[in-house]
User: Which sequence fits this backbone?
C-alpha cells in the first residue's frame, strides 16, 4: 500500500510559481521604493516555500515501512527514504489529525533501543489518513 500527497503538492507548486510572477510584474509596473520592498518580500517568501515544499510518500508493503519525501522538481528515479525499517519493529502508532498538518507518531522497539519517530503528513486528505490507519492496524494485529 502506497499513500502519497504528490498530486496536491505539485498543484500547490505550480500555483506558487504562477503567484511569483505577480510580484515581479508589480516591481516592473510600480516605481515606488516601498512597494518594491514589499514585492521583494513576497518573492522571498514564495521562494522559501518553493524550496521547502516536499511531497510525502508512505509505503507499507512486504513487511517494510518506508517514508520518502520528494521535491516536486526532483528528477525521476530512486529517492532515498527518510525512514525505512521492518514493520515488525513497530510497537505503537498514533495519528494526530489537524486542519492542514497531520502527524504520524511511531514507537519502535529494536534489539538494543527504543525510538520514537514523528512524520508530518502535510496535505493528506481524510481518506488517505483512514487508509493508512486501517493498514497499520491490520499489520500490527498479526
Assistant:
Amino acid at each position: 500500500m502506497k499513500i502519497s500527497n504528490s498530486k496536491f503538492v505539485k498543484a500547490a507548486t505550480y500555483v506558487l510559481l504562477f503567484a511569483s510572477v505577480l510580484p515581479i510584474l508589480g516591481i516592473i509596473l510600480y516605481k515606488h521604493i516601498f512597494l518594491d520592498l514589499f514585492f521583494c518580500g513576497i518573492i522571498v517568501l514564495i521562494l522559501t516555500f518553493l524550496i521547502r515544499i516536499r511531497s510525502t510518500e508512505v509505503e507499507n508493503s512486504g513487511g517494510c515501512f518506508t517514508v520518502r519525501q520528494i521535491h516536486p522538481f526532483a528528477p525521476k528515479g530512486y529517492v532515498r527514504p527518510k525512514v525505512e525499517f521492518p514493520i515488525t519493529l513497530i510497537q505503537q502508532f498514533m495519528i494526530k489529525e489537524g486542519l492542514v498538518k497531520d502527524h504520524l507518531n511511531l514507537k519502535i522497539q529494536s534489539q538494543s533501543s527504543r525510538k520514537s519517530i514523528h512524520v508530518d503528513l502535510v496535505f493528506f486528505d481524510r481518506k488517505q489518513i483512514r487508509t493508512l490507519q486501517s493498514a497499520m492496524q491490520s499489520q500490527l494485529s498479526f
Summary: The chain has three helices and seven strands. The first strand starts at residue 2 and ends at 4. The beta strands are 2-4, 55-61, 64-70, 83-86, 90-96, 101-109, 114-122. Residues 62 and 99 are 31 Å apart (CA to CA).
